[in-house]
Sequence to fold (174 residues):
Amino acid sequence: MLKKYFITGMSCSGKTTYAKKLAEETSIPFINFDSHFDYNKSKNYDYVKKVYTDLPDKFIIDAVPFNLGWNVFIEYIQEHDDIELIYNVCSNPITWCFRFMNKFGFAENPSVETIKKTFHSGFTQYYGLYYNTISAITGLVNYKIFDSFDNTYITTEELYKRIDWVKAIKEETQ
Fold:
């Protein structure tokens, strides 16, 4: 039985909302990653390793640390067989953009330039997370993809169809 759930995804993809809902449905404790992790220490191997070591036997956490954290995460999943990784995505770029602008306080009367900058800043993260890490993690851990735009689980193939706008932005910036 799965007991350890890592919910990962872009800022404003709905990780925390979904993690709390899953925790309620499963009665597995929720851990808020932002209050549990010191981002200033994210490149300190010993610190990140201790974060993983200190996790309880059962939990749902709303992130996987980036940078050094992905390497430590891979070590962690190789030591545990009761993990599920859930990639959260908001496939609708307009919805994601406005979630992002609301969260970071610049959604009131956004200019076209602000919206364009938001898309361009997000595409690199989208591309890296959803195109690169999914292929890198396949076979190492059970994973699912949850689209918070329509609250459904989707396949990897469906994910790529839904976020083809990311590739368009990448081509525009090259």
User: Anything to note?
Assistant: The chain is about 50% helix and 15% strand. Helices lie at 15-26, 33-36, 45-53, 68-79, 93-103, 112-137, 156-162, 164-173. The chain has a mean pLDDT of 85.
